[in-house]
């Protein structure tokens, strides 16, 4: 592998790790961007079980359930990782 290709690969991997770390540091807004919330409306979630761990140490049934609570808490709840806490 040429030095240039290696440098590009390492740079790309570094950016991926930096982005993942930013989301895991509690960036619920980045993690929950697909769940549009209108003032006064509740987010309706499916019952699909794909656990998500919040920074409060609680396991949420899925990403949508986590995001519903995160929006309600207005930034006091962050995303920790996929899976059970």
Automatic annotation (TrEMBL):
InterPro entries, alphabetized: Kazal-type_SerProtInhib, Kazal_dom, Kazal_dom_sf, Prot_inh_Kazal-m
Underlying gene: LOC100076231
One GO molecular-function entry: serine-type endopeptidase inhibitor activity
Keyword Secreted annotated: yes
UniProt source species: Ornithorhynchus anatinus
One Pfam family recorded for the sequence: Kazal_1
A cellular component term, taken from the record's GO annotations: extracellular region
Keywords: Disulfide bond, Protease inhibitor, Secreted, Serine protease inhibitor, Signal
Family annotation (PROSITE patterns): KAZAL_1 (PS00282), KAZAL_2 (PS51465)
Residues of the signal peptide: 1-22
Domain Kazal-like intervals: 26-85
Official protein name in the record: Kazal-like domain-containing protein
Highest taxon above the source species: Eukaryota
Subcellular location: Secreted
